[in-house]
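Title: Comparing notes on inverse folding

I've been comparing how different people in this forum approach sequence design from structure. To keep things fair, I'm posting one structure and asking everyone to reply with a full sequence. Here's the target:
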């Protein structure tokens, strides 16, 4: 069966895309990011999809993109932070090796700031991030086979911790 070597989940700005690319390089396999798939397929940015069609429409597009990538990708796969909100997606993830990258709120604000590319954090990022995590923390934990804390760690250190977690799981 085709399956990603590892699937990275976690909140916006935790480093899924940055760390995913590093882990793929270290494993000598291909890196894929479902946000990039969505942008390529739609020919517009994530922020534009949110503005043009709203979050429910984005989630429907995202669900399709995630299910396609889980079915066909063999390397490292990073999901958008909200992909785990979908119950069918969580069910599919149960069959995969999933690593949850975590961080606390201060680290989150440092990394994402007022970056308008992430529409869900455009206004009052600290409060919005707390609310998002209250709604999602248990879902990240539910789908994950391992949790890697990223606070105060460089992307290279986080990538190494992910590789260590993989080695433990694959052993
Ligand atoms: N371990 C880290 N320490 C500090 N900054 C980081 C770390 N990992 C990622 N970043 C920075 O945080 C921002 C968000 O990273 P990104 O990989 O896009 O996160 P995600 O895909 O989870 O939203 C980027 O500016 C990136 O350079
Ligand atoms: O957490 C979320 O709901 C989102 C996370 C984003 O991806 P990253 O987690 O890669 O920033 C992107 O899919 C969109 O802005 C919504
Ligand atoms: Mg990303």
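Reply #1:
Here's my take.
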């Amino acid at each position: 069966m085709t399956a990603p070597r590892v699937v990275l989940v976690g909140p916006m700005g935790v480093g899924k895309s940055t760390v995913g690319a590093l882990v793929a390089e270290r494993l000598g396999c291909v890196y894929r990011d479902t946000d990039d798939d969505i942008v390529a397929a739609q020919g517009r940015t994530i922020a534009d999809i949110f503005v043009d069609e709203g979050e429910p429409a984005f989630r429907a597009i995202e669900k399709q993109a995630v299910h396609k990538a889980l079915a066909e990708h063999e390397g490292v796969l990073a999901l958008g932070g909200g992909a785990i909100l979908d119950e069918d997606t969580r069910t599919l993830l149960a069959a995969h090796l999933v690593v949850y990258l975590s961080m606390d709120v201060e680290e989150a604000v440092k990394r994402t700031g007022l970056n308008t590319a992430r529409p869900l954090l455009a206004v009052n990022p600290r409060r919005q991030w707390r609310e998002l995590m209250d709604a999602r923390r248990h879902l990240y934990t539910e789908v994950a086979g391992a949790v890697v804390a990223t606070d105060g760690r460089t992307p290279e250190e986080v990538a190494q911790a992910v590789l260590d977690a993989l080695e433990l799981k694959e052993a």
